[in-house]
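Field log, afternoon session.

UNIT: design team B
ACTIVITY: writing a sequence onto a fixed backbone
BACKBONE:
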């Protein structure tokens, strides 16, 4: 059985400019994402129509595509691109493609003569481990939540933004795991399973990321635990979204561990938790507003 392991970081250029240049930054990033989607769409269409599993690397002088064997040091780049495209767009069509081209590299784990196995596995399998959905959890698993908040309306400002999340019984919020990135002015309050993040002011062009973990307890066995997160603030209609974690009655052997015996899986509560002024606040899925996503696909063994 194959285990999708994946965790490849994506670095984006961050401009330190202000004012009107922030919109240029947003446009620059989105333009590059759109271009990547277009290029990957063309290439996957070609490969899928061929009926083969091919791994593109470069364009030859005559305009044709150079495809490489799996033992080429660049073989992990194309599967990695599939995972990042899925992550950046939230479009589910990229998920089976990412899994398919990642699993094609399964035999790479047996290579003993290659010094670039890290490139090959890191971009593909490790990225899949980070981004693949998981359906079921077991006692002791650490469930990672990620909330992203940004304003979509140009030149908008929202004051007294508050993000609340009450972790359901059966999970234990790890208060020390709560981290806020993207801004410097904020307050974190935790009380048991209650989390509150206060942001005095959020401006267009800023993106706040809140990361935290919850541990699956024995009392969760046989239950589906529903987690609700909310956002409120001036100029934002309040709302909420729900995500769920299923814990079967029979405990299963973990597919992979973080070294301490407990499994860590990212459950993204908001690839884009978009606080939009004067628009309904939160929705599960693609409805306009503050969007919360839960990725729940079980890691393959």
């Amino acid at each position: 059985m194959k285990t999708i392991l994946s965790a490849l970081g994506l670095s984006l250029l961050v401009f330190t400019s202000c004012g009107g240049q922030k919109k240029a930054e947003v446009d620059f990033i989105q333009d590059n994402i759109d271009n990547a989607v277009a290029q990957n769409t063309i290439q996957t269409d070609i490969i899928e129509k061929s009926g083969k599993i091919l791994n593109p690397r470069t364009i030859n002088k005559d305009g044709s595509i150079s495809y490489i064997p799996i033992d080429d040091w660049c073989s992990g780049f194309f599967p990695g691109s599939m995972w990042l495209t899925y992550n950046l767009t939230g479009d589910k069509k990229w998920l089976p493609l990412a899994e398919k081209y990642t699993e094609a590299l399964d035999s790479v784990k047996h290579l003993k003569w290659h010094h670039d196995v890290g490139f090959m596995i890191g971009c593909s399998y490790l990225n899949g481990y980070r981004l693949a959905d998981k359906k079921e959890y077991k006692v002791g698993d650490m469930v990672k939540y990620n909330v992203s908040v940004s304003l979509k309306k140009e030149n908008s400002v929202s004051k007294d933004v508050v993000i609340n999340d009450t972790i359901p019984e059966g999970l234990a919020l790890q208060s020390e795991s709560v981290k806020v990135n993207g801004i410097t002015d904020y307050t974190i309050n935790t009380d048991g399973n209650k989390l509150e993040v206060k942001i005095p002011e959020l401006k267009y062009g800023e993106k706040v990321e809140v990361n935290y973990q919850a541990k699956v307890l024995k009392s969760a066995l046989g239950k589906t635990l529903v987690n609700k997160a909310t956002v409120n603030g001036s100029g934002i209609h309040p709302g909420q979204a729900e995500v769920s974690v299923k814990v079967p009655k029979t405990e299963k052997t973990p597919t992979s561990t973080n070294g301490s015996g407990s499994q860590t899986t990212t459950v993204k509560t908001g690839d884009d938790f978009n606080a939009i002024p004067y628009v309904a606040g939160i929705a599960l899925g693609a409805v306009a507003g503050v969007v919360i996503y839960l990725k729940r696909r079980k890691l393959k063994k």
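LOG NOTE: Residues 21-50 form the longest helix (30 residues).
NEXT ACTIVITY: expression trials, pending approval
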